Please model this.
Amino acid sequence: MGETSIPLPFGDFPDDVQLCVLSFLLPADLAAFSCTCKRFVSLYRHDQRLWFSMCHRRWGSKTLINRWGSGKISYKILYRILHEYDSLIGFWRRCGDAASAASSSSPLVFFEWGPFYITCSRISPSRDGGYEVIKKPFLWMSVASNGEPVNYLDPDGKFALTEEDLMGESGLAENELIQVNVSFIGECHAVVEENLGFSGFGRDSSSGNSRGEDYENVYGSPPDKLMTEIYQYFANRTSPSGNGSRRQKRKGKDKQGRMRKWEPEHFVKIVNCSPKPARPLQGLWKGICENMSLDFYLVSYDDVGGIVCRKVGDSNRALTYHTPIFWTSNLTFIESPFSPEEDHIYNCRLHLRPPVEADQSLLLSSDCRDISVSHMLYINSSYDLVIPDLVETTANPRQMKGRIWQYENGTFGFGFLRDSYIIDLKHIAVDGHLLDTV
Amino acid sequence: MASSSNTEIQKMIVLQSSDGQIFEIEESIASNSQTLRNMIEDECADNVIPLPNVTAKILARVIEYCKRHTEAAAAGDAADADDLKKFDADFVDPDDQETLFDTILAANYLNISSLMDMLCKAVADMLKGKDAEAIRKRFNIKNDYTKEEEEEVRKENSWAFED
Model:
C-alpha cells in the first residue's frame, strides 16, 4: 500500500507504549529501527525490559524467561541463545559410530523446554507390552548469568536431577556429571561432546549449510553426506585433541593427559515428525509389531511423490535404519467403500494390540477396531530385499505387497499380504508433548 | 437504570470524555480496562469518571471494542469468531494516523491489554521489513547520526540481520 503523507509520531508515545510496539519485532527489524536515531540505539543495546518482552513474546509460554541465567542475564544475549535453542527442540536421531558404548541406549532423543534450561531425553519403547514410552533425561543445557552455556550430561541416566542440582547448589552437577558442548554442523546436525577446554555452544561456520532451510524440502540427511560432515567437522577443529579425524579414537587423551570419559555423539534432526493435512502419514509413530513389542516408525515423504517407512529405536540394529519397512511411490488413496475383496483382506486380520486385562477392555473407548477405515493405500515391503533367498519366491507378488488403512481419527495401520496382521500406529507426540511417558 | 426484564443487575459505570460527553456502560464491559477495574474495586466508581485524555470519538470506539469482545467471551463457543476477526481487522485503519495514535494512548491510559497488543502489533507491522530511512519517514524520527556513526551501528547490529 502507498505511504501516507502524515507520519505516526512514534517518539511522542509514552515509553511503555514504545516498548510494547517494539516487543513485537524480530531482531532484524529492531536492528533497523535502532539505526534511526541515537535515542533508539541505546534502547536496543541496553534496555532489559525491551529484550525481556521480546523473549517473553516468543518463548514465554514455553519457559520461564525470568529464571534463565539466575535472573541476572542480559536479555539481549538470552534472546540470541533461546533463538538458537529453538532449533534444537524436537526429535533427533543418534547416528554415526554404532560401535561406541553409547549405542546400548536408544538412538531416539527428544529436546524440550524446561523452566530455565533445555533437556534432552532418550526415548525408548517400554518392554511391558503396552504403548508406554520410556523417557530418560540425560542432558541439561542452561546458561550462566554471563551468557556462557552450562551443559551437563548424565550418560548412564543414574541421577534424577532437581532444580537445585542444576543451579549448582548441591555440587552434584560439578562432581558427578560430565560437562559437554553442543554444536551445530548445519541446520539439522548436532554434536554433543565432552568439554575438554573447548568453547561452548555455537555453529560451525565452515559447515556451509544455508540457514533458514525450508523443512518442506528436507528429507533428512542422506548417509554419505552425513559422514562427510562428521569427518569435516573433526578435521577442521583446531583444538588440543582434534587434529585430524578422531572419529575412531577410543579413550582419547588431550594434551593435558585428561581421559575422555565419554565419546561424542552425533544427532540428526527428525524433521517433519507430525502429520500435516497434505501429508497425513508423515511423522514419528509407535506401534506393536509382530513380535508383540513396541517399536517406533518414521514415515517420510520423499521428493518423488512417495513415502518410506523405517523403524527408529532399536539401537542394536542401527544400520538397519536404512532398510525400509514399507514404501510406495503411488500416493493415490482409495476411498471407502472398498471392494469386497479388499474388505475381506482387512476384516480377517488381527490388529496387534497390547494384552488387555478383561475388566479394562470395557474402558477402552477409542478401540481401533471400532474406528472405521476411511482410506486405503497400496504399499510394498522390503522383506524380499533383506532375505536374499526369497528372491526366487518373489515371483509371487503377495510376498511384497501390503496395505495401509487410514482410520477416521487420522491414525493408520499397515499390513502385508503375506501375513494376517495389522500394525496400528499411534502418535508418539502431540503438539510437542510426548504421550504415554513413564 | 437496569430494565425490569433484565435478570442480571449490572452496575453501570459512567464515563465522561474530555469534550464532556457522557457514556454509560455495564460493569462487565468496563472491566476490560484494568484502570476502571481498579477503581471499581476501590469503590471510586460510583460517580461520573472523567477521562480528560480521551475524546468522545475515541472513547466510543474503545467502548465498541470492549463490548464486542465481552459479548464474544460470554457467548463462548457460540460466538461468531469470523465476525470478531473482521471487526478487529477493520478496527485498525493504518492510514488514519491520528485516530490510531489517539486510540493507542486511550488504550494505554485505560490499560486494556488486548486492545493495546492489537494496536501495537499493527504499528510494529508498519515498520517490518523497512530500512532505517524508511522507518524515519514513517514515524517522523529525526536522524541525529552522522553517516559514519550510522554505519558503525549497522555493523554492530549485523548479527540480527543474519536471521
About this structure: Residues 1-6 of chain B have pLDDT under 50 and may be disordered. Chain B touches chain A through 45 residues (CB under 8 Å).
